[in-house]
User: Fold these one by one.
Assistant:
Number 1:
Amino acid sequence: MMAMISCILKTTHKIFLAFLLTLAVTFGAQAQGESEQAEIATKGVEPGSTEGAETGSADPAVIDAGAALFKNNCAVCHSAGSDVIVGPGLKGVTGRRSESWLVSWIKNSQALIQSGDADAVAVYNEYNKQAMPSFAFSDDEIKSILAYIDAQANVAAAVPTTVAGPEGTTPGENIGTDAIGAVGGYLDIILVVLIVVLIVLVVTLLLISSLLKNYLNKNRELTEDDKEVVNQRFDFSKVYKSKAVRTLVMLIFVVVLLDLALGKVMGIGIQEGYAPKQPIAFSHKLHAGEHQIDCNYCHTTVYESKSASIPSANICMNCHSQIKKESPEIQKIYTAIERNKPIEWVRIHNLPDLAYFNHSQHTQVGGVECQTCHGPIEEMDVVYQYSSLTMGWCIDCHRETPLNTEGNEYYDNLVKLHEASSKGAFTVASNGGTECSKCHY
Ligand code: HEC
Ligand code: HEC
Ligand code: HEC
Ligand code: HEC
Ligand code: HEC
Ligand code: HEC
């Protein structure tokens, strides 16, 4: 009997210990899972991730033609996704309607409605009988538009996060991260249930053991030894002193520390994708993209000096003294000028002081395009840091980029020397572009 009881008591202790360990491990795992989830989520919305994504199976040239037709004729009223602008979003329309129906609709929707076509009448009524204009397109042109719409839907499906910046994450489009979130959600629920079950188990066992203890103490004659066993207390210092527990705690601690340290070291000063909110909702996509204003018009010193200037409010006023004066965003420019205070743009690209970088050397002398380093600025509503701007990034490009020595006598001898000693191209690096002193004062 005594043996059995002492066995029960010991088991209780063991279960309690196991419970503590499980708790520690599950929380560790959960934290890990969460950080991975967060990582995937941020990777998911990494700007620019849709660029270069393969579209559907149709001929890219056809899709491009369709894209142009769509932008010029349809985009004022339709999105190629599911947003309603004036008319319905056209995502999936080739599934909803037959091709011949679409062709007749786009050529002359009114005629189709008057012919009594049920679908045509229904969609016409749904959108409050707004007549869509007729388009004198050939069948092939219409098919190219449809191919473009399909391709857009494929892009959205292949790369679920078609998000331009860190804001404006459209719900529903984020299938990727949502799905991960859902799985994470289930795991959370399972973990919580497990923990509750464990707690219930432990409490029940503790109750049983205390009941037994009381019973034994009251109703039995016990020897000294037995008493000791029955009345032994749960000793936390034992748990603390136990080798297994100590090693485990140390291990968890070390792993967490390493993980943190690694993240910090790898991430120090690297701000790829950094896209702060600016005081005025200025869009490069609108200005440099749609209205094709030259970069140089605003960043006036980028070809002449070390730094590319940020335009003053006066440059904005060249146009906005006339354009969109009533817009609240434009009013902010007026306020800045009235108060004689510069607009406080948040700086995005910033090398540490120890490094020397010169714009004119790269843009004017080297002929490197802005986009090579800054990415597709003309497509960005909000500018984000496209390149890592690390030392490795600078040096990699210097190693790979041939120097433009054509028609520059200064280089003739250097190139000859280089060709005598090496087979590779005469790169920026061959000219000393990887010497520390070139980039560090
Ligand atoms: C001036 C606005 C406007 C323009 C421009 C326009 N649409 Fe429409 N479109 C509509 C409206 C509104 C509807 C909804 C039906 C209605 O009220 O006639 C519609 C409906 C449609 C539908 C039917 C959708 C469905 O779910 O059945 C298709 C397809 C369509 N448009 C394609 C196009 C294409 C392709 C172009 C460009 C070549 C275009 N539309 C240009 C306003 C427009
Ligand atoms: C109409 C004026 C205008 C034009 C044209 C323009 N920019 Fe800008 N640019 C700005 C303003 C204002 C800012 C600061 C606000 C911001 O970051 O959006 C800026 C910021 C930037 C930045 C980030 C600067 C930082 O803080 O690190 C880069 C890079 C940039 N522009 C590149 C370009 C390139 C490349 C082009 C041509 C394709 C261009 N810009 C055309 C006005 C302009
Ligand atoms: C060369 C002409 C030009 C210059 C310079 C210019 N803009 Fe614009 N801006 C435009 C045009 C054109 C539009 C589009 C107006 C429209 O949509 O009708 C626009 C639109 C805008 C809008 C959107 C307004 C709205 O509510 O729709 C903002 C904000 C803006 N500009 C800010 C600026 C700032 C800030 C500067 C100076 C750094 C600047 N712009 C310089 C031509 C210019
Ligand atoms: C070889 C790469 C490279 C090219 C090409 C390049 N930039 Fe930059 N740009 C940078 C780096 C690096 C910085 C950060 C500089 C710093 O912090 O000192 C920067 C910063 C900027 C800034 C912020 C202001 C500043 O000078 O720090 C603007 C605006 C800008 N670039 C615009 C442009 C435009 C416009 C072009 C094309 C005409 C261009 N850049 C071409 C690498 C480049
Ligand atoms: C996209 C390619 C590219 C990137 C990225 C790049 N450079 Fe360059 N760099 C060039 C080219 C091309 C030249 C040569 C220009 C010429 O013809 O003299 C050059 C030249 C230079 C020179 C002058 C070298 C000499 O021999 O006189 C310095 C200094 C320099 N770069 C610094 C930097 C720094 C700092 C960075 C990173 C912040 C950087 N570069 C990133 C392409 C690049
Ligand atoms: C082509 C330009 C270039 C050359 C050549 C270059 N560096 Fe750098 N270096 C940079 C840039 C840019 C940074 C800043 C990177 C950052 O902020 O992540 C940097 C950063 C550093 C740092 C500081 C790192 C930190 O974390 O703060 C050291 C140290 C350094 N470089 C040493 C060197 C040495 C030594 C050489 C010669 C073997 C050298 N660099 C050659 C561009 C260069």
Number 2:
Amino acid sequence: MSDKSRKSGGRKGRGDAAADDWMDDQKSARFHARSHHRKISASTSRSKGATPLERTEANSTVIEVFPQLCRVRLDQDSSERLCSYRRAQVYEHGLGGEGTRERSPVAVGDRVKVSSSNPQSGVVEGVARRENQLIRPAPGRERDENSGIQPVHVVAANIQDLVIVASTRNPDFSPGLIDRFLVAAQLAGIRPTLCVSKIDLFERGQKPWDVYRELGIPVFEISSKSIDGIEALSSQLVGRKVVFCGHSGVGKTSLLRVLTGREIGRVGEVSDATGKGRHTTTSAVLLHAPGNSLWIDTPGMRAFGLIGVKPEVLQQYFPELEAAACADKPCSHGSKEESPGCAARGFPRYDSFARIRQSLIEGES
Ligand SMILES: Nc1nc2c(ncn2[C@@H]2O[C@H](COP(=O)(O)OP(=O)(O)OP(=O)(O)O)[C@@H](O)[C@H]2O)c(=O)[nH]1
Ligand SMILES: [Mg+2]
Ligand SMILES: [Zn+2]
């Protein structure tokens, strides 16, 4: 979503179109789930104050989530099951603080306890306490006007690394989303890495991603076509739990194909007309890769709304601005009128910071 639409009363804070989301645009998932809809009528139980399972009680990992059903992988024999999760409770996993609520009991990466009566299917009996989670406002779900509750979508749970994928071209490199992901990673305690994809399309000139290197964020220039940079990136990620995020069409699935050496998922052409991806991947999926790696491919996001950060503390997540030599201490790094003696305005990410701050002031969670 553009900042223009946000200012003109667009879908504040969700930062995305409903079409990006598994629950709103998962044709195959609906197909899978349809037969179960009839059998399962009770609504998911919501348990304020109830406690999740201890981690040692879990016996499976959630690898894909659909409405009503999820695909899990059992620890015991690595077999997969399609499981109903309607009996599982929605726990308060310490999401985005007051006024937020997860809308699904399970997320990709969750550790769960599954009971199964046959080799194909099963039931999720409980969800283990999470180590962390990458969250965003649930696409297509506004904050409820009466209760003030913001529905939350957990992109992935129990992860160590967030690989932010941004292409040099086709679609063009766009830092706005990167800065938002960097804030979200800090909030969740996840190590961020910037992966600049399609380096084979980069002709020469200034590299707008160098600013992230200067900030100390690991930056890898890669190409899934020419395989440049893949080994270096891979060596950082083997054995780790990683979620790959970015705009549609930047090459996340292509990258995961090269990293895993498997023809996973679907890869789609970028539109010639708009220069944007076509939202080829429609639901997040966890891949068990060599070296006990858990790598999660996600659907392309148009934007990324932040949850659990107030505008006045946003600067804590922009360390270079935090250190700026402003006349007033503390300084909100606001507009010229608001903060006349502010020294943050000269920094490369200042405009990005100011845009995010403004959208938080205007009501993004
Ligand atoms: N030139 C070039 N093209 C690439 C590279 N990686 C991917 N592509 C192309 O970019 C397009 C999009 O690739 P995908 O892997 O489907 O992108 P994605 O990020 O998974 O997209 P969504 O699933 O929609 O979020 C395809 O046409 C790929 O062939 C690369 O390194 N270089
Ligand atoms: Mg994809
Ligand atoms: Zn300032």
